[in-house]
Structures are given as C-alpha cells and as structure tokens.
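in:
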C-alpha cells in the first residue's frame, strides 16, 4: 500500500510539471489531454494484467489444513 501511495504522490508532482513544460513549448491543450488519455489507458491495461496475475497466483496456492493432533 505504501508503494501505491508513493507512486501516486510522484505522479501528482510530475503531472502538472510535465504539463506546464509542454504548454510552455506551445503544445495545444487538446494534444496534452490526448497524451494523458493514452497514459490512463495504459494504466488500465496494467491494472487488469496485474489483477489477472494475482488471481492466478491465488488460484494455484495450496490451501491445506493440518487436522492431525
């Protein structure tokens, strides 16, 4: 959870900084939104892949109970 919060804060710092740099170079805001849309779509795919990998890992774990006394 700490890594997720850390990456979120890094993104919160870098995102407006990078957007400001692009706008200073004369990029149209529409193009900037399109680039951020691409990043969000990539993030969605990565989350889906990660979720599938975690589900597969949990499915293959052996949950046996030791009932001997």
């Amino acid at each position: 959870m700490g890594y997720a919060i850390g990456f979120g804060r890094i993104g919160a710092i870098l995102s407006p900084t990078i957007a400001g740099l692009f706008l200073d170079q004369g990029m149209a805001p529409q193009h900037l939104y399109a680039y951020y849309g691409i990043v969000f779509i990539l993030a969605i795919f990565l989350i889906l892949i990660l979720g599938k990998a975690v589900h597969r890992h949990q499915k293959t774990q052996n949950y046996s109970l030791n009932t001997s006394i």
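note: Residues 47 and 53 are 10 Å apart (CA to CA).
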